[in-house]
Amino acid sequence: MRKKHISWKNNLWGWFFIAPACMGLTIYIVLPMVYSLAMSFCSWDIISAPQFVGLDNYKRLFTTDPHYLNSCFVTLKYTLLFVPAMLILTFLLALLLNFRPLKWKSLWRVCIYIPSIVPIMASAALWTFIYDPTNGLLNNLLAPLGIHKEWIFDKNMVLQCIAVMGIWSAGNTVMINLSGFGNIPEELYESVEIDGGSSFAKLIFVTLPMMSPLIFYNLVMALIASLQTFTQGYVMTNGGPESASNFYMLYLYDNAFNFNRMGLACAQSWILFLVIALITVLLFRTSGWVYYGGDTE
Question: What total of structural domains would you count in the chain?
Answer without folding.
Answer: 1
